[in-house]
Structure prediction request, 115 residues.
Amino acid sequence: MSTVMSATDPQERPLDVGWPPRANDSTDDWALVGKNAFSIAGRFRAVGDDGGGDDVARGQVTHGPIEVASVPSFVGTTEERNYTVVRQEEGTVYLGWHLWLDDAGSRASVFWKRI
Prediction:
């Protein structure tokens, strides 16, 4: 399993940097890219809960131990996420991850639509 997240705000994604990094790339621009992008890879397992009925499935996904991460302190850790799968009448399927970051005082909910 791998996850890659990146900011979508153009102010957080400088267009002046390239890959591989060039000698004239701004260190400040690269710092901004690094601050607003996150990736992890490792094993995962999902445990489901049928308590949501026919249209909703819920459960928890455990990622880890994390083997590769853009933030080195995540390597070796285990991340748990609650998920919800919603099936709508017209056939649209949404997958939602829910993460509460208590220490940071923030909450993240990310939804994917199956197309």
Notes: The chain is about 10% helix and 50% strand.
